[in-house]
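Intended use. Records like the one below are meant for learning the mapping from a protein sequence to its folded structure. Do not use them to infer anything beyond what is encoded.
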Amino acid sequence: MSIPVALGKNLKLPVITAPMFLVSGPEIVVAACKAGVIGTFPALNQRSSEGYEEWLKAIKGQLGPEDAAYGVNLIVHKTNPRLQADLEITVRHKVPLVITSLGAVRDVVDAVHSYGGLVFHDVTTLAHAKKAAEKGVDGLILVCAGAGGHAGTRNPFALLHEVRQFFGGTVVLSGCLSTGRDIAGAMQMGADFAYMGTRFINVTESRAADAYKKMIIDSRADDITYTPAISGIPANFLNASLVACGLDPKNLPEKNDIDVGEELSHEAKAWKDIWSAGQGSGAIDDVPTTSALVARLRREMHAAYADAQAKQQAFA
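Structure written out for the chain above:
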């Protein structure tokens, strides 16, 4: 295990709630941290840098010494016009965990390290993982096949094994993790944290529309389409939401470039109307509070460990 001390404090479950575009806000972050898991949100979910800072103040004001740590996601891409301003705010507020996406940059890592913060970076391939490690990140988030949002196509067994051969930092596993048994499986594979997004769309504190949450409940893995057509980067989307926007999931237009600034200027219409979810949606059938979900996940994880011990005895 390689969980940094700063992130292990008050942790009741080895889970990071993924920062979900237009879904994660202060409400779910605070609820997650109070429940004993790490809550995160994208800085770009606030429509301005000033608003982002207000969210940080609100989150810090509601968290106490008994709560778990929190984190923020920064899009490190040349087309993100807010990166420098948001980074300065992040440093000023000494955010414990910074999750970087779409680019690993040494200057960003150094800025976060300057106050003792940690940087975890999203990767989908071994090449991405090696580049991020060279930039000095503290952790790698392996976004494997079937994950919600921007995702890769690698099998988690293969990618985790290859990353562990050269990286000694924290490894976070993402992709179709919806239950406590899934968390236990990720730990048995050698991950330090489970990264859960879609499961936490369906909690009462998320900002997802009720229709979005119902669509997740009604969907299975076959109802998810993996495509770059929406944002220029391959991601998983709910077929029903594509159809509702007049698109044919089997015949989508090509788009192979990304412009974060353009998405922001258009109020992120694509992501607002076309909803993302991972293939693990088939294991989701309710909308509990974050606290109730974390308690359930803990029970399921411990039950899975007990089951594994019993099976181990059979081959002792």
